Amino acid sequence: EFNEARRVFDEIPQRDVVAWTGMISGYTTCGRHSEAWVTFCEMKKEDVELTAYPISSVLKACKGMRSCFCGGMVHGLAVKCGVTHSIYVENALMDMYATCSGDMDDACKEEMELNPFTLSITIRACSTIASHIFGQQIHASVIKHGFESNLPVGNSLVDMYCRCSRLSEAYRYFHELPDRDLITWNTMIAGFEKSGSDLSLQLFSQLCSEDLCPNCFTFTSVAASCANLAALTCGQQIHGGIIRRGLESNFALTNALLDMYAKCGSIAESHRIFSEMPWKDVISWTSMMNAYGSHGYGKEAIGLFYEMVHSGVKPDRIVFMGVISACSHAGLVDEGLKYFNSMDIDYSVKPNQEIYGCVVDLLGRAGRLLEAYELTISMPFEPDEMVWGALLGACREHKNSTLGQLAAQKILNMRPSGAETYVTISNMYAVDGRWGEFAEMRKLMRGAGDKKVAGRSWIEVRNQVCSFVVGEKVGPNIELVYNELKTLVQQMKDVGYVPDSDCFIHDFEAVV
């Protein structure tokens, strides 16, 4: 009946995006991929608004045609239309690139004619499927064919290395580029920000000394870096730069500033920004809820949740994670359980692993370990490492080594080389005086061949962020850093902080 469907489609006087998507999807389902592609091109000519649904449908046609060229063009349209974060588009892109990657590999081996456009598409494919090995092969082809000086190709390579978590290679190539534009700088700054490195702020300072003007994308990444590092003074300077350039009305930037002030401990400033927003999306509401929750203002977070619902914004999983986490930090266990139970019934939102992990943490913080364990084993799917980790953390906090051992074993079954799990359970044995089991667990850890990753701390001194691990020198400002640390420790003690000696008296062996 496909010809009849096409006839009906052609007779529709005003075809909307739903009709076009149905036609494209129908062709793809029947294996008529070329016709699906032609239909998509017709849709584009008629200036019909592109959403995630027709784009994900035509990407399946590109996969069926094994055409990375067509898929790359659709990927570009997806970026332009702002739909790359749709789960449908993400899955379709990964599926298309994964299918076409073999063809791209063959193309490189056959020495087909390359140009900057095809190279950029191919590099983008490597970014999408996170294949740095194939990306390095393409990089070699770029050098071989003399495209090192092509800026779009260079930007694609920097982005590929960042997305594949090869930051040292990205940074090295960034410096090797003969020319760099704002896209190059933004890509590298965003790469460092996503890794939690303070180099993003250093790079931003270098950018400001160049003859380039940072834009909204630049400031969004740098504000996120200040949030990650809790660098309030730097964040305030960034805010000033945003105001001077007249960018304070940008919605994404406003959300980033709200989050930055919250994570830097300035709740009042976060609330001011939130209150002055002309309209708020789910990200704005969630950021403010998380701000309240992380600082112990559970009731304020709950009030904000109801205000959000009454404003017509539908809560999603991330919102529920925020409000349940807020209840957890404030000790509002029954309220948190109420929101958990209402998710599916009142809002048709199914809990996932992260939500269950939040509820396990909620119960665990309150010492209700048996309930937390019963919830874990009654989940409708197999608990992942995060859920068992929440239970293990609660067992350590409340010194229940028996249940903690069970949780630790579940984690080690999933990831046998997890050094931090060995350290946690062995410390629990030591606190209980179970030295034989402590020694056995340390022996198992050494046999696993993994080391606990050293925790990195950072501190802001005189508008400069210094990061370090235990015993590491932090450069010429070491005395200033030590003095600032001593001041902070004293201030913590003045408000009642008492170190938990059970957590660190046995950690000396973690470095073995």
TrEMBL record:
Protein name: Pentatricopeptide repeat-containing protein
Keywords associated with the record: Repeat
NCBIfam families: PPR (TIGR00756)
Chain positions of PPR repeats: 16-50, 150-184, 281-315
GO terms (BP aspect): RNA modification
UniProt superkingdom: Eukaryota
Keyword Repeat: yes
InterPro entries, alphabetized: E_motif, PPR_At4g14850-like_plant, PPR_rpt, TPR-like_helical_dom_sf
Repeat found in the keyword field: yes
PANTHER family: PENTACOTRIPEPTIDE-REPEAT REGION OF PRORP DOMAIN-CONTAINING PROTEIN, PENTATRICOPEPTIDE REPEAT-CONTAINING PROTEIN
GO molecular function list: RNA binding
